[in-house]
Amino acid sequence: MNILENFGIKIQHLDPQKTEITMAVTDRTKQPYGLLHGGMNSVLAETAASLAANAYLPEEKVAVGVNIETHHLKAVTGGELSAQATPLHLGQRLMVYQVAIHLVGNPELTSMSTVTLTAQPAPK
Q1: Which residues form the Thioesterase domain (predicted)?
Q2: % the chain with pLDDT above 90
Q3: Are the CB atoms for 71 and 100 separated by under 8 Å?
Q4: Residue 51 is part of a domain; what is its CATH number?
Q5: Other C-beta atoms lying within 10 Å of the C-beta of residue 92
Q6: Which structural domain, as residue segments, surrounds residue 74?
Q7: Which residues, at least 6 apart from 40, have a Cβ–Cβ distance to it below 8 Å?
Q8: What is the percentage of the chain residues whose pLDDT exceeds 70?
Q9: Is the pLDDT reported for residue 54 higher than 80?
Q10: Residue 92: its pLDDT value, please?
Q11: Residue 73: pLDDT above 70?
């Protein structure tokens, strides 16, 4: 089982210039205190950025995360999150994406991340 299946992450739009994924907030993604676990914001951010960067790269390359900075802006207790990745830099070796996360139907940000990825040869 991969991370998309494990957390019910769905790809809504996949493009190097804008990728959107969604995930329902469930008990599986919450802290014991009933709040979304902050690590899930980072999971969503890196997943959206990785999908977008891999759509940008040629088939013989794969993008892997090398750095992520996540700001948790608002507590989330339920609903469905949307993570939208847009590029800040698309190079031959490094790609940098900004990922905005909010609840579906509410434009107020719950989290914001910057994800840096590097291009490596695809595994054979």
Answers
A1: 33-103
A2: 95
A3: no
A4: 3.10.129.10
A5: 9
A6: 3-121
A7: 7, 23, 29
A8: 99
A9: yes
A10: 93
A11: yes
- How many whole angstroms from its chain centre is CA 113? 8
Q: How many CB atoms lie within 10 A of CB 27?
A: 7
- Residue pair 100/60 in contact (Cβ under 8 Å)? The answer is no
Phi–psi pair at 33, nearest 5 degrees? -90, 0
How many domains are there within the chain?
1
Catalytic residue among 46, 60, 69, 80: 46
Backbone angles phi, psi at 13, to 5 degrees: -155, 135
Helix, strand, coil percentages, rounded to 5, for the chain: 20, 45, 30
The pTM of the full predicted model, rounded to 2 decimals, is: 0.95
Using the structure block, give the residue that is written with the tokens 């190097």: 16
Q: State the pLDDT confidence band at 16, using cuts at 50, 70 and 90.
A: very high
Question: What are the phi and psi torsion angles at 107 (to 5°)?
Answer: -75, -10
Instruction: Look over the chain and give the mean of its residue pLDDT values, rounded to a whole number.
Output: 96
Under the phi-then-psi rule, with left for phi > 0, alpha for psi from -120 to 50, and beta for the rest, what region is 105? Answer: left
